[in-house]
Design a protein that fits this description.
single chain; alpha+beta; Thrombin, subunit H; Pdz3 Domain; 6-stranded antiparallel beta barrel; 6-stranded antiparallel barrel; 21 strands
Length: 372
């Protein structure tokens, strides 16, 4: 009888152990299958990585497409014309100085450097990508900005897309297109990054000193023939016009930010004219102060009035040399380009209100703009 009870206990114990083992087995392999699902998701992630690589390749392809498209809006500019059509053609001595420009409207307005095209009312010669050459008339220029706009009698051109230079930051990838050295290397493309923004450089030429401010610095290679050509984002948007380089160092070039000239461009595109107002002052931001006298080094914001034009609009106001202009019609000013950009939106005889300080004294000044 006792033996029979022991057998029953053994059987119950066996089934109990079997149940526990089965439970452990199901639980264990259930987790294993769940982990396998994780593994599958990891594989999908790897596929996404492959797609990212493919997208990068596509992006690279889109860059080449962008360059090919934008190159159609890049032109050659020369102050001399050869006997045949193209200004890129060699003369008898094998030399021809050329610069670069960028088409900003389908009906023939072209933006470049003033030192490439010449000043307003002068003439130059333009060669398009297809080799066709045109006489061009300079319809606007600003020597201080080293920018100009000329016009050719051509239509259905490929115009560039203008970006927003105020959003440009150090580290942005950029491309430069231009005609370095001469015809042999027309529409050369170089690449780099934005090295810095709001740069100021001092120019000393023919016993005169001037300053270019609010420049975009880049390490994209810029040679003399690149002057007037576009500085581009990978999207193809023009954010600046290449203007100068530091000859004593490698990889230091500068471009004038495109925003400053947008009001002028818009006026020519919309009305075919631009009536330029002016205030009649020269002013510098705080980045220029190290070049100036120590007496003017005690301001950190606004623009410092360095000169007031004789008989200009500001000469009859209460604005004085040494004043700091903080805003115009409520628009904050940090660079001279800010002031120029705003004045370009106004008309002669418009009245503007300046917020000015001199030391601890602040005041408002109204000035009626003149016609330049």
């Amino acid at each position: 009888m006792r033996k029979k009870k022991n057998n029953i206990k053994r059987v119950l114990l066996f089934f109990l152990i079997l149940f526990i083992v089965s439970l452990i087995y199901v639980t264990y392999w259930g987790n294993t299958n769940f982990n396998s699902s994780n593994y599958e998701s990891q594989s999908i992630s790897s596929t996404n990585d492959m797609q990212t690589v493919e997208n990068a390749i596509l992006n690279s392809s889109s860059i080449t497409d962008m360059i090919e498209h934008v190159s159609k809006s890049v032109v050659g500019i020369s102050k001399f014309k050869k006997n045949n059509n193209s200004i890129f053609s060699l003369g008898l001595n094998g030399e021809l100085g050329t610069g670069t420009g960028v088409i900003i409207s389908t009906n023939g307005y072209i933006l470049s450097n003033c030192h490439v095209t010449g000043e307003k009312y002068s003439s130059c010669f333009v060669t398009l990508e297809n080799g066709n050459s045109f006489n061009a008339k300079v319809v606007w220029s600003d020597v201080d900005l080293d920018l100009s706009i000329c016009k050719i009698n051509a239509y259905s051109l490929t115009a560039s897309i203008l970006g927003d230079s105020s959003k440009v930051k150090s580290g942005n990838s950029v491309f430069a297109i231009g005609n370095p050295i001469g015809f042999e290397f027309q529409r050369t493309v170089t690449s780099g990054i934005v090295s810095a923004v709001n740069r100021t450089i001092k120019l000393e030429e023919e016993n005169s000193v001037s300053y270019m401010t609010d420049l975009i610095q880049t390490d994209a290679t810029i040679n003399p023939g690149n002057s007037g050509g576009p500085l581009l984002l990978p999207s193809g948007e023009v954010i600046g016009i290449n203007t100068v380089k530091i000859t004593s160092a490698e990889g230091i070039g500068f471009a004038v930010p495109i925003n400053v000239v947008k009001p002028v461009i818009d006026s020519f595109i919309n009305s075919g004219t631009f009536e330029e107002a002016y205030i009649g002052i020269s002013a510098y931001d705080s980045n220029v102060i190290p070049y100036l006298s120590s007496s003017s080094s005690n301001f950190t914001s606004g623009i410092y009035v360095a000169e007031i034009s004789l008989n200009g609009p500001a000469s009859s106001s209460r604005l004085y040399v040494g004043d700091v202009i903080h805003s115009i019609d409520g628009v904050t000013l940090n660079t001279m380009n800010d002031l120029k950009q705003y004045i370009y939106t106004k008309k002669p005889k418009d009245t503007v209100v300046l917020n000015v300080s001199h030391g601890k004294i602040s005041r408002e000044i109204s000035i009626v703009l003149g016609k330049k």
